[in-house]
Amino acid sequence: MSFCIFVNLFIVKVTLYMKTKLLCTFTDINSYADELASVNSYYDIVFGKIFVLQDVDNLDNLLLTYNINQDTFNSINFYKNTISVHRKKDSNTLYTINSLNALIKNLNGGILDTNFKIDWDLYKNKILLVDDDSYREVSTKLFKIIKI
Questions:
Q1: Which among 18, 23, 17 has a CA at the least distance from the CA of 40?
Q2: What is the CA radius of gyration of the chain?
Q3: pLDDT tens for each residue of 93-111
Q4: pLDDT tens-digit profile of 48-107?
Q5: pTM of this prediction?
Q6: What are the distances in angstroms from CA 34 to CA 27, 30, 64, 130, 131?
Q7: For residue 122, what are the contacts with CB-CB under 8 A and spacing of at least 6?
């Protein structure tokens, strides 16, 4: 008498999720290649890509956007001309928390309401910025994707 024993093997794939931070470095068309190299050596860039965006109203202005490992990020020591941003994926809108607050106040009669609904399609392919009390929207287009 013989027996066949079937053993089910379960292969478990363990994926460690790292927390990332999206950064944006402002540069110009003449020096962006040097800035790409500098940013790449300054930060631990994850996902192997730097997205280069161009200001549609001033084609000399470029924005380098990239994700870094938040665990290795020193928030006190940013690379020059660099800010931390958030991205609304559906509309490809980049914004800072301060610019989001300024937008809400602008749309809501000067009142900051964290439950205020924003029509993100109105801000498609833009970066929202604020400087002191000055709020502005910069329209962008994809200039190049750099694989690193």
A1: 23
A2: 21
A3: 999 999 999 999 999 999 9
A4: 999 999 999 999 999 999 999 988 877 788 999 999 999 999 999 999 999 999 999 999
A5: 0.84
A6: 10, 9, 12, 27, 26
A7: none
pLDDT at 1: 47
Share of the chain above pLDDT 90, in %: 78
Q: Tokens 């801000």 sit at which residue? A: 123
In order, the DSSP letters of 101-119 are HHHHHHHTTT---TT----
One-letter amino acid at 76 equals I
Length in residues, the chain? 148
Partnered with residue 146 across adjacent β-strands are 50
Single-letter amino acid code for the residue at 18:
M
